[in-house]
Amino acid sequence: EVQLVESGGGFFQPGESLRLSCAASGFILSNHWMHWVRQVPGKGLMWVSRIKEDGSYTSYADAVEGRFTISRDNAKNTLHLQMNSLRVDDTAVYYCVRERKGSYGAFDIWGQGTMVTVSP
Amino acid sequence: SYELTQPPSLSVSPGQTASIPCSGDELGTKFVYWYQQRPGQSPLLIILQNTERPSGIPERFSGSNSGNTATLTISGTQAMDEADYYCQAWDTSRGVFGTGTKVTVL
Prior knowledge:
Helix content of chain A: under 10%
Structural class of chain A: mainly beta
Distance between the termini of chain B: 36 Å
Strand content of chain B: over 45%
Oligomer: heterodimer
Shape of chain A: globular
Distance between the termini of chain A: 40 Å
Largest interface: A-B, 23 and 23 residues
Radius of gyration of chain B: 13 Å
Helix content of chain B: under 10%
Number of strands of chain B: 9
Strand content of chain A: over 45%
Number of helices of chain A: 0
Radius of gyration of chain A: 13 Å
Number of helices of chain B: 0
Shape of chain B: globular
């Protein structure tokens, strides 16, 4: 079964750092661009970041540029999101998302999400 | 920054057709994707590259994209289609989601 499982969420204070992880199974991670998407509970979706199959290219939403870093370990079938200088408005469910190969950017597999709460 | 606008809500009777617009500057020059999100669940891809349905997505879901507006159409709406729907596109290497539309079937 194709599956993405996120971990690392929890409660944090402004200014702190955390690292989210996403364990991929049922497919070859190195064949796919991977993304992080977040959603404030009860609100809409927001794309956060993406990384190329081999990790050689990344891009970020303006809101997280310079604070978040996406990375991957294809040998361990794992995607990461390093989140520094956390802000209250980073509070959201963070989804690990697979891009469908050859689709020009369609998100075909989503994890269940991990909740990150940033509060003083 | 690029924006995609959707109506916040839409109501439809069972068996009727629901049309959800997604508006953005020159959106017709981009690929548009649509996602369904039921309460408490992760989003599900239902349309890719404007008109294509992934395997397993019912034929009642269809998409179009022209000018400044993309449209998701649900024909013969069923109770199970009650959900939030989001359009999505790419602009300057960044993903952009629409504001989302809550579809109520009543």
